[in-house]
Amino acid sequence: MSFRQGFRVDVLEGARIAVFSLRANRMRTVLTTLGIGIGVATLLAIVGIIQGLNASFEKQLATLGANTVFISKYPWMVKGNWWLYRNRKNFTLEQVAQLRAQADFITAISPAVMRTSDVAHGALQVSNVRINGVWSDYLSIGNYEVVSGRFVTRADEEVNRAVTVLGADVAASLFPSISPLGQTVRIDGRPFQVVGTLGRKGKVVAENMDMSVFMPFKTFNSHFGKGRPMQIAIAVADAGQMAKVEDQLVGIMRRVRATPPGQPDDFNVNRTDSLAATYEQLTGALYAVATGVGLITLLVGGIGIMNIMLVSVRERTREIGVRRALGARQRTIVLQFLMEASSVSAVGGLLGTTVGLGTAKLVSLVTPLAADVRPGTVVGGVAFAALVGLLFGIWPAARAAKLDPVEALRYE
Asked: Which stretches make up the ABC3 transporter permease C-terminal domain (predicted)?
């Protein structure tokens, strides 16, 4: 018999004996399986939620556009002294004009100011709506879609028209059964004519983009005052050149704001990819902690498997002696115990994977947290659990294989 044929026979025989042994000790098998299953379930539930959050965040950032840049007094992620940013000088329309004239890669630019207020129509009212004052170019910069009517225009800006464009949620709340076009809404008590509605955008970093209205920048200032800080929204031609774009923007802004040499920038260039990098740092730490907790739980389960297998070796010493006396090789004994340990662990891994990913999916259904169940995660969970059983079964298997046949036969 060749080595390959002998190995195949050993595997089949080891599998048969392993199954028989597991069935003969059902309670022990169930408890050992639960130990591994709990570890895998803990790990994969957290992994599923984190993967879902990552996918959701990537989708949200895509709505902002990969080729957009926002220049403002504040960074999107404020670190350190908030008053340092608060005391920076506000931007001016003259600086926006100089930036548009000097930058050679800008395809669209718009100042943007914002406040929150109530928007009402008749007896219906929506609270905490983002009121945005922008130029017409903001439509393409923000990746918005007009579904009815139009967006604000340069003509609206020039003549200071009291017109507004409604976000999807605002339009649905104030006009549930009629078209908003041509209707009058009251923003902070002031009348505005609705000239358009926008398509649904969803949330970006927990901010509901559909709970917004837009009006001409000049109209916003005349109705609500000019004291609010402005940001500059920019769309560029090539998203792959963002590093060069940022360098040029920084140079132009320092020049037009007369920032002295050697002094730090008194503005921030905010990019979607930098926000994504910050998010990955935050979730990376969470992912590492979650993985550590899951691995510790699996380690405890693996130690449990080793303990149970050592007990099994002691209980079956005489059986091992009989098999060795009848010609069983050491590798046959090793394969038998390894297959027994990995089988228990794999079943626990399958159970834990099902429970863990099911828990992650349930959490996503009843809470705002997202979950992403990927096929690779399922396969990886079962395979990793089986590997844990295999590793922790090596010592008991080797101990069983090295038993002296004569002493094993005399064991009571």
From this structure: 293-405
Please state, as a whole number, how many other Cβ atoms lie within 10 Å of the Cβ of residue 91: 22
Those residues whose C-beta lies under 8 Å from the C-beta of residue 168, and which sit 6 or more positions away, are 147, 197, 198, 199, 200, 201, 210
- Measured distance CA(134)–CA(163) in Å, rounded: 12
**Which residue(s) pair with 111 in the sheet?**
232
* Percent of the chain residues past pLDDT 70, beyond the cut: 79
Q: Are 404 and 325 in contact (CB under 8 A)?
A: no
Residue partners of 166: CB distance under 8 A and separation at least 6: 119, 174, 180, 185, 194, 196, 197, 198, 213
Handedness of CA 80, 86, 90, 91 (dihedral sign): positive
Query: How far lies 215's CA from each of 53, 167, 299, 385, in Å?
Result: 33, 11, 59, 58
- Distance (Å, whole) CA 50 – CA 205: 15
Provide the β-strand partners of residue 113: 133
Element (H, E) at 157: helix 154-159
Closest CA to 281 of 37, 102, 79: 79
| pLDDT tens track for 227-251 | 788 999 998 887 777 788 888 888 9
Q: DSSP 3-state assignment of 165?
A: strand
pLDDT over threshold 60, residue 1: no
